[in-house]
Write a structure and sequence with these properties.
Strand content of chain A: 5-15%
Distance between the termini of chain B: 71 Å
Radius of gyration of chain B: 23 Å
Largest sheet of chain B: 4 strands, antiparallel
Largest interface: A-B, 37 and 37 residues
Order of helices and strands of chain B: HEHEEHEEEE
Strand order of the largest sheet of chain B: 2-3-5-6
Number of helices of chain B: 3
Strand order of the largest sheet of chain A: 1-2-3
Number of domains of chain A: 2
CATH superfamily of the largest domain in chain A: Cytochrome-c3 Hydrogenase, chain B
CATH architecture of one domain in chain B: 2-Layer Sandwich
Number of helices of chain A: 16
Shape of chain A: globular
Number of strands of chain B: 7
Number of strands of chain A: 8
Radius of gyration of chain A: 23 Å
Structural class of chain A: mainly alpha
Helix content of chain A: 40-55%
CATH class of the largest domain in chain A: Mainly Alpha
Structural class of chain B: alpha+beta
Distance between the termini of chain A: 55 Å
Oligomer: heterodimer
Chain lengths: 379, 156
């Protein structure tokens, strides 16, 4: 034994390890975009962690003040580019409440369908990146197969795979071709569920994955509330908070579904909640296709909208949590103030607390469960 | 039993390995994009080189990124002398196409326009009053639909 050597043994006994600062990111391949984390380490143990953000700051909130309300939709797409329809919908709801615009029935169903489809694609992206974070290349390749198929539907119906600019004040841009809807229905009913079963077989039962996730970085509901954590991360701690149920919008109150929760609060619970949410979202999108009534999809709204003076705040259950839009109007065609409450920003603020005391290898397992998008955090 | 989940995962990858390929073999087989895909901005024009644009400037004023530059004919303000598109700035939002009252603007689906020279990203749809080769040739001269009924006004 090396410790038995008289010199080594003496050194180990008296050694005081000096902490070092390790800069993770912003170019680190596991950092989900340009996220920078300063880790203070003692050996491999994390003593403190400081997130450094702002590398992707584009000034979207300020840019929006110089654009008309319709032009801002293009910016809103680029906030959280993985759940575009949720952003557009939240922004539309804010403006519709401000300008008192009615939305036709069919448009509400279409919006709900797109929002749930994008929740599936967003969680698929997260599933793939969790695999990458833990050192597995296979999940990301597999996750992109159903994701691309749903993007094909987006492209055929809205004109763009990632940046649709599809929702409009008072409805959606145009109706969906029934043939496309039928093809999507067939895909969601069988192939997507098969793919999700395949992912469960690939990762969920994997003993190495389970041992790395179980009991890791536990969070209680009180802590989550204190840190402003929302969305699947909050529901993984046992909270039932889901804005789709608490403050119903769209047609969520008419669909047969349940909010996914878990009581364990650890990294595995966060994984489990998102995996189940994908199935629920696919179920909801299917119900939307089946029950969608015929009719108009768009109310006539002035091309250059001038909402009355006032302010509005709208909360929306985005794929990452509570997305808020605070819009102040002074009666002109451009917003006076445009403020975004980003769920990923709040969720990432819990990271220093979660990873204190963890090892470096565990850091990525914790970080993957947060599912952040830097474009939304930095804005 | 420990290892059961690992074996199940291996069986999934094994099935996939023997199954069909999911990739698009891109340079050899090109995807045909759906007609709604927004790739490059183009304009409808008749075979004799007359563009459908009547230089109303709705697209130029509605564009969030100042992509479109139109020069009106000083003698006939309903005729565009030049219509230039800076696709390097374009975000492909489709607001111009949607707002065009004559349905003159359209998007083409040819995606192979990568270039090493940023200057070539700016192209003309109308030059010297006539439609250029970047336009889409249509037979009709009148719009398919009546002018947009949204009753909008121009951006101030």
């Amino acid at each position: 034994m090396i410790e038995d050597h008289p010199r080594v043994g003496r050194l180990q006994k008296d050694a005081v390890t000096e902490s070092i600062v390790l800069n993770m990111g912003p170019q680190h391949p596991s950092m989900h975009g340009v996220f920078h984390m300063q880790l203070e380490l003692s050996g491999e143990t994390i003593l403190a962690a400081r997130p450094v953000i702002g590398y992707l700051h584009r000034g979207i909130e300020k840019l929006a003040e110089h654009r008309t309300y319709a032009q801002c939709m293009v910016l809103v797409d680029r906030l959280d580019y993985i759940s575009q329809y949720c952003n557009e919908w939240a922004y539309c709801r804010a403006i519709e409440r401000l300008a008192r615009i009615e939305v036709p029935e069919r448009a509400e169903w279409l919006r709900t369908m797109y929002a749930e489809l994008v929740r599936v694609t967003s969680h698929l992206m997260w599933f793939g990146s969790v695999g990458l974070d833990l050192g597995g290349w296979t999940p990301v390749i597999y996750a992109f197969i159903p994701r691309e198929r749903i993007f094909d539907f987006f492209e055929a119906t809205t004109g763009s795979r990632l940046m649709p600019n599809y929702l409009r004040f008072g409805g959606v841009k145009e109706d969906v071709d029934p043939a496309e809807m039928e093809a999507l229905h067939a895909y969601l009913a069988k192939d997507l569920i098969d793919a999700l079963d395949e992912f469960d077989g690939l990762v969920t039962g994997n003993e190495i994955f389970l041992s790395r996730q179980r009991g890791l970085a536990p969070m209680t509901v009180d802590q989550a509330h204190a840190w402003g954590v929302t969305g699947p991360m909050l529901r993984a701690c046992g909270s039932t908070r889901d804005l789709r149920i608490d403050t119903p919008y769209g047609v969520y109150d008419r669909l047969d579904w349940e909010s996914c929760t878990d009581t364990r609060g650890d990294a595995l619970a966060r994984y489990s909640v998102r995996m189940r949410e994908m199935r629920e979202s696919a179920k909801m999108a299917l119900q939307c296709i089946e029950r969608m009534p015929a009719g108009e999809v768009r109310t006539k709204v002035a091309r250059v909208l001038r909402p009355p003076e006032g302010e509005v705040y709208v909360r929306h259950e985005s794929t990452r949590g509570e997305l808020g839009f605070h819009i102040v109007s002074d009666g002109s065609p451009k917003p006076y103030r445009f403020r975004v409450r980003s769920p990923a920003f709040m969720n990432v603020s819990s990271l220093p607390h979660l990873c204190a005391g963890a090892k470096i290898s565990e850091f990525f397992a914790i970080f993957g469960g947060i599912d952040n998008v830097m474009a939304e955090i930095d804005r | 039993m420990f290892g059961q989940g690992l074996l199940k995962g291996l069986s999934v990858t094994g099935r996939r390995m023997l199954g069909k390929t999911e990739c698009d073999m891109y340079p050899y087989r090109k995807r045909v994009l759906p007609p709604k895909s927004r790739i490059f901005l183009s304009m409808r024009a008749t075979p004799d080189g007359k563009a459908l644009c009547n230089a109303c400037l709705t697209c130029q004023q509605g564009c969030p990124d100042n992509v479109i530059r139109i020069e009106q004919d000083p003698e006939d303000r309903k005729r565009a002398v030049s219509f230039r598109v800076n696709s390097g700035r374009c975000t492909f939002c489709g607001i111009c196409e949607e707002n065009c009252p004559r349905h003159a603007l359209t998007f083409t689906q040819d995606f192979e326009r990568a270039t090493f020279d940023k200057g070539t990203l700016t192209y003309a749809l109308i030059a010297d009053g006539t439609a250029t080769g970047a336009c889409v040739i249509v037979e009709r001269t009148e719009p398919e639909h009546p002018a947009s009924a949204e009753g909008g006004e121009d951006v101030g």
